[in-house]
Design brief:
With 209 residues, the protein is α+β, with helices and mostly antiparallel strands. It contains 4 helices and 5 strands, in the order βααββββαα. Strand 4 and strand 5 form a beta hairpin. The longest helix has 16 residues.
Length: 209
Amino acid sequence: MTMSAHTAERRLVKSSPELWSEVSDQESLGRRLDAFGEIRITGTEPDSTVAWEGDAASGTVAIESAGWGTKVTLTVEVEDLPAAVPAATETAPPAEVAAEPETQPEPETQPEPEPTPQPAKQGFFARLFNFGPAIPDPSLPEANSDEPEVTPEPEVAPQPEPILPPEVEPEISTEVPEPAPLSAEMIDAILQGVLDDLGAAHHRPFSRS
């Protein structure tokens, strides 16, 4: 994990004791640096420097008398943003698909000729006197059996109903998400805003002595 440091300074037309009372107060400093999360003062050098820490940053506020005003220097160290992974520009060539062999059509088979039914054999006396019905030959198929045979359909066993798993309610997370990392431009803008707020004149209500 790498850290980057940012600095901003300005000479403010305010006295050192007045600025010290604002930057050394936990609530006052936390309100100005709330962009870095919850601020905690970790150490001070009286009338000189305040060290602080946030959720993902840390820094100092230093004040120094300078002529007609006070020089204020803000420093902050934050975690660097993760480097973006460049997208691959070259794409792998598609794998060659083996050509399927062409299937040759099967030769048509000629239907075999059906045997010609032979006339029923007659007995000797029937052929001699030419009377009596013809005796059918049991080895020959019946001439009038034109009705096709009906094959019974197989019975289909009933399929059991699928068993569905019980519904599970999603768990609600109570964890507080971490603040998004700040860019260098955003950090510089935050520090300049803190200096603007410290340098602004705070009007006190008029009172008669």
